[in-house]
Amino acid sequence: MTTAAFRVEGAGIYAQIVRDKLPFATIEGDTVIVCSRLGADESLGTHIVWLWGQLMHGRRVLRAAAAGGARLVFECAVPKGPVSLPANAAEPLHLLGAELRLLLR
Question: What are residue 83's phi and psi, to 5 degrees?
Answer without folding.
Answer: -120, 130
